[in-house]
Amino acid sequence: MMASSQILQCFLNQLLLLRLTPIWAVIGLLFVTVWxxxxxxxxxxxxxQNVTFDCPRDKSKEIKLxxxxxxxxxVNGYHVNKPLSESWENTERDDWTTVHMYRLNISHQGTYxxxxxxxxxxxxxxxxxxxxxxxxxxxxxxxxxxxxxxxYGGCLVRCASQGGYPxxxxxxxxxxxxxxxxxxxxxxxSSEHQxxxxxxxxxxxxxxxNCSYGKQEMLSCSVGEVTSxxxxxxxxxxxxGNHDVIVKAICAIVVFIIVVVLxxxxxxxxxxxxxxxxxxxxxxxxxxxxxxxxxxEAS
Length: 299
What we know:
Elements: H1 2-20, H2 23-34, E1 41-46, E2 51-54, E3 63-70, E4 73-79, E5 91-94, E6 98-101, E7 110-118, E8 124-134, E9 141-146, E10 154-164, E11 171-173, E12 185-194, E13 201-210, E14 216-223, E15 226-227, E16 231-233, H3 240-279, H4 283-298
Parallel strand pairs: 1-8
Antiparallel strand pairs: 2-6, 3-4, 3-7, 5-6, 7-8, 9-10, 10-13, 11-14, 12-13, 14-15, 14-16
């Protein structure tokens, strides 16, 4: 008797649950139960490259029609009895159910359907193929700018990369042996900008390094699967003491040489003037000498 009442109560509960359940949920449950789903195939490609949609078919049967669609948009195919819409210009059908797609871009990614109907009209296959399109980011460029006296100041490091997909954040990589007990660096800003036409992303990041902890080595930036060259920051400024001494010594030598040259030039000039004065004869002296010479001849 108790078992019968429990069965009755269970039936009533199920009936009440059915009345409270929305009709769309019941229909969805029936749809999932009656209509088996086909496993979705995965296809990957890169921007600018090519992919091939190889739709599975029953080779023992003759095909009446074949459609390759992106969602509900016709891409390529054929029908034995009637012409079809114009195919995508970057696609080409090969064999019965094979379609090549060229010059991929980001807009081509999505879910495609292979629709095949055979001449016996008894089988209508619908295979899903999901196309994922990616683009490799360019090798990150690194720009380092430091304070003049960055030994006690800081350095700004900017890493930038272009033309990648999907969206990825620029990362700053440090060696595993780095001392993490101090806040040596801090990210100031990070951005990912998408181009409206190509739908590709540019990724960049700027970080500030505290140079009071000394030189930091073996650093790199990465985005996606691309990594920059290794770089260092906060390198000690060059020792300017010896440099100043050398510069001062050179200047002193140059000044000394100039003084010596000027002294020599002055002495040479005075010597020439003295020689000119000794070798020159004034007109009065010539007249006196001539008179004395004439007197001697007369006597």
